[in-house]
Amino acid sequence: MSIAFRRAVGLGVLALGCATGARTTLAGPPRDPARKSNVAVDGVISVENAKVGSTDWQLTRVGVDSSGFRSPWVEGYCSRQSVRAGESIDIMVSTSPPRRFEIEVFRMGYYGGRGARLMTKLGPFDGKPQAVPKPGAKNLHECRWEPTTRLTIPNDWVSGVYLGRITTKSESELDPYHQSYVVFIVRDDRPADILFQCSDNTWQAYNRWPSKFSVYTHPKGQQGPWADVSFDRPYAREAQYDGIVNDPLTVGSGEFLPFEFPLAFWLEEHGYDVSYCSNSDMLTPDRGLKCKIFISVGHDEYWDIRQFRSVETLRDAGVNLMFLSGNAVCWVTPYRASSSGVPNRIMFRGGPYGANNDYALRREREHGPFPEHGPDEGLLIGARNVEPINGASDWTVVDPAHWMFAGTGLKQGDFIPGLVGWEYHGAPATTIPGLRVVAAGTAWVGAVVPQKWAATIYPGPKGNFVFNAATIFWSQGLSSPPGHTLPWSHGTRPHGPDERVQRITRNLIDRALGRAE
User: Cα separations (Å) of 212 from 8, 185, 221, 508?
Assistant: First the structure.
């Protein structure tokens, strides 16, 4: 047994033990001292965010039908998850009853605190009802709607998450307008400091449109490989978690606004050089190898095995990995093409990651048989998915001497209230040389069932690192942009922006970019 290995195991055991002791919280988070900016004022993101943002980009009039999920008055989807500048994307829209409508396309960012910039306005168009598809094999709902319009992405549109706000035209005071979103990602291939991977596989896995047709709602059971889901359908209201997030203002936008936008808003506020991609853009490592940091954000549960191998390649090549996420890399998620031949438009829960760990074997025994089985995700991300996987806790520091806590004022046992949830990671991979458990504690499932969680960091092979925040809610501590609602979990909620979370995140990024003080 190597010295590094014994040290990693010792620290892990010590850290987990400390988490059970008495805790104190700071009277208030210390202020992040002024720091010299290392971001070029003419950087792509800084230049973009200097442009005038929009004061009117959120949904104002939005409703859902009796199913509680879809908005049949106006709804739509895009033909691709992501697109480059110069390429085209089709936008499909249905209105019932028929109505004229327009589409305003916004790029999401900081923009002086406004959160979005109007990029273009399309229409007006003559809307009509488009058919809800009959369930196919494995309850697949794959829409084949006629395109409303084809948008060619201008060459000067910066990589980012784009929302198209669809608004029907009001005929009279007795016939009010309705709104919903479509969402797509503009990606690029330029070298960038940070690659922000949107968790859109998970958005789609939980998408119940038109009423009860996610991977969780098949009659055979909610955890098996029984259901296929298609990206060729609208995103329903983000209410899949029985109240964890229950916001009608998200209709059509997946999980971006509640779980991911606070990170994007904060990164762009501080001028970090960030580029964006979808899960499906990581089937090869090429994009990530041009970046210094790869970030998994929010609820990043569903990964094609090719994503896993790509991110392994990034780590081994010296890219820093930041899992600002929980329940990440939980299910192997194979893609296949749509009925029209478009790649990566249908997916299903193929089987668990976890190799021969008890968690994966139990899922196979209780919910299988599964056609796919993934490796131990802990050996990549530093900690693992555990069961039960959901609950809530404060984020409690156990290794305050680590450099990531510099300038935070945090001491052992101090905690950040409500930051752990809705789901998390535990079972640290203590066989990784140099792995340290930096925060740990007990999450409670319904205030009844306890479960250990743990946040970790370990060194990569080329001076890089892999950080695992161990919670879906990490971004809630970074910012609270317009259009964002705090989630809650098992009677606990995060408190929103926290200067300690901000400083920890800044310390990690600055170290990865060679800017550490």
Answer: 45, 26, 13, 40
- 299 close to 202: Cβ distance less than 8 angstroms: yes
Q: Which fold has domain 62-187?
A: Immunoglobulin-like (2.60.40)
Residues of the chain with CATH 3.40.50: 192-512
Q: What is the DSSP string of 55-69?
A: S--S-SS----TTSS
Q: Are 151 and 87 in contact (CB under 8 A)?
A: no
pTM for the predicted model, two decimal places: 0.92
Domain 192-512 coded CATH 3.40.190: no
* Amino acid code (one letter) for 425: H
> Which residue spans of the chain are classified as CATH 2.60.40.1930?
62-187
At residue 435, what is the residue type?
A: L
Query: What pLDDT tens digit does each residue of the chain (517 aa) get?
Result: 333 333 333 333 333 333 333 333 333 334 444 343 444 456 999 999 999 999 999 999 988 888 888 899 999 999 999 999 999 999 999 999 999 999 999 999 999 999 999 999 999 999 999 999 999 999 999 999 999 999 999 999 999 999 999 999 987 777 789 999 999 999 999 999 999 999 999 999 999 999 889 999 999 988 999 999 999 999 998 655 556 776 778 899 999 999 999 999 999 999 999 999 999 999 999 999 999 999 999 999 999 999 999 999 999 999 999 999 999 999 999 999 999 999 999 999 999 999 999 999 999 999 999 999 999 999 999 999 999 889 999 999 999 999 999 999 999 999 999 999 999 999 999 999 999 999 999 999 877 899 999 999 999 999 999 999 999 999 999 999 998 989 988 888 999 999 999 999 999 999 999 987 6
426, two tokens:
């535990």
